[in-house]
Design a protein that fits this description.
By secondary structure, the chain is an alpha+beta fold. It has twelve helices and 15 strands. Bound molecules: adenosine-5'-diphosphate. Adenosine-5'-diphosphate binds near residues 281, 319, 323, 335 and 339.
């Protein structure tokens, strides 16, 4: 039996909601011979009594009927009591009937006895099952933990972008308010900014939704992905960053890599996460490059092995030997606010698609990140596929 010194709250409503058996009575002096003040329906049910019969019980009768209660009555002067009680008229060796119980005094001198709905044995069985369940859950939790880290990393980016966009909008709005005559001219760009913030929020929502789905199924989706369209969507998402950094864009996407020619089967949201990450890294890497030299060159092709390859080349800082050996190591980052998880996550996502992610130094400035993905099986299904949603996703 343990003693707690928790302060007496008024949780009766909660107990009732949980179906707990509760009785309120006075136990001091003559009052112990008086009927109970109140008892919950579950209390009567437990003792096999209707409400009137239950309320007619006295504290004395209750103490005589409930094994274990006397210990609580003896201890209550020192504070709330936690222990166990059993209905003596409904016990046997095979059915000891002990239930966890708690006794507390109310400020007006009454006692509240709460008996939990499960017997000690049921409680022990449930706890044992819960422990087993917890163990089984552990391995899954590791995966969920990884996904939570992914989530933190991935959401950092759209939230940062939304913050930037909103800050920009605020500045523009303030200047429009100061000079109302310019409002007509400013409206289109304000609307554009609002749309961009909305796009980022929707992107973040898609990531959350996908992570949630993935933690349930632990399977990437299998749908036809138009990589060219996905790249264009990702660039639209980064429009603001590209503009802000004055990045010149060169797009050289092969018609071969569009969904109606050689589609990829994969998870659209995951693949977009990879593209957005790589594009953002490339933009970040060019922050120290002189403004007129910031060039992002994106190309796609079918390589000699028939794989669909996307290359993202920048004119940024490039990757030195030291960084190269740690690039895919979690938490390696050279950015003040970087989490260093992006590339690691990107590579896992691409490997989930049976693809490859790597980088090469450029002949001139910067480096190029490459993704190669297997094409969809000629019949439309990759080997071992679970099935394909027939829509073309981008
Ligand atoms: P984060 O962006 O949070 O730092 P990443 O895993 O995406 O995490 O990148 C890890 C590090 O790799 C970056 O901090 C940067 O030093 C380096 N890196 C990634 N992409 C490039 C790039 N295109 N050019 C130069 N360095 C890069």
């Amino acid at each position: 039996m343990t003693r707690t010194h928790a302060s007496a709250k008024a949780p009766e409503q909660a107990w009732l909601a949980l179906g707990d058996a509760v009785a309120v009575f006075a136990a001091a002096g003559d009052a112990a011979a008086k009927p109970l003040h109140w008892c919950s329906p579950a209390f009567g049910q437990w003792l096999g009594l209707d409400a009137a019969a239950c309320r007619a019980l006295t504290a004395h009768a209750l103490a005589a009927r409930l094994d274990g209660l006397q210990a609580g009555l003896d201890a209550i002067a020192n504070g709330p009591w936690n222990g166990a009680v059993a209905d003596s008229s409904n016990r046997s060796a095979s059915h000891p009937g002990w239930r966890p119980a708690e006794l507390r005094a109310t400020p007006d001198g009454l006692l509240v006895l709460r008996v939990q709905p499960e017997s000690m044995q049921q409680l022990a069985t449930r706890r044992h099952l819960e422990d087993r369940e917890r163990l089984l859950f552990t391995s899954r939790s590791v995966a969920v933990g990884e996904m939570a880290t992914t989530l933190a990393h991935e959401l950092n980016q759209p939230l940062g972008a939304v913050t930037n966009v909103l800050q920009g909008l605020k500045v523009r709005l303030t200047s429009v308010l100061e000079r109302p005559d310019t409002s007509a001219k400013a409206l289109p760009s304000l609307a554009q900014g609002a749309q961009l913030a909305l796009d980022h929020v929707q992107y973040a929502a898609r990531i959350i939704g996908r992570v949630r789905e993935y933690t349930h199924s632990r399977q990437p989706r299998r749908e036809r992905v138009d990589l060219n369209a996905l790249l264009n969507d990702s660039l639209t998402l980064l429009d603001w960053d590209l503009q802000r950094h004055g990045v010149q864009l060169r797009l050289n996407l092969s018609a071969e890599t569009s969904a109606d020619r050689v589609p990829v089967i994969g998870d659209t949201v995951m693949l977009q996460q990879v593209l957005v990450n790589l594009l953002r890294n490339a933009i970040d890497a060019m922050s120290a490059t002189s403004a007129d030299q910031r060039i992002l060159d994106i190309s796609s092709r079918i390589d000699d092995a028939g794989q669909i390859e996307i290359a993202i080349a920048d004119t940024g800082s490039g990757i030195g030997d030291d960084a190269a050996s740690q690039l895919f190591t979690p938490f390696f980052s050279t950015k003040p606010t970087g989490m260093g998880l992006g590339l690691n996550i990107c590579r896992s996502l691409i490997e989930l698609h049976q693809g490859r992610l790597w980088f090469t130094p450029n002949a001139g400035q910067g480096c190029t990140f490459h993704i190669a993905l297997p094409p969809a099986h000629p019949a439309g299904l990759p080997a071992g596929s679970l099935g394909v949603e027939e829509s073309v996703a981008s």
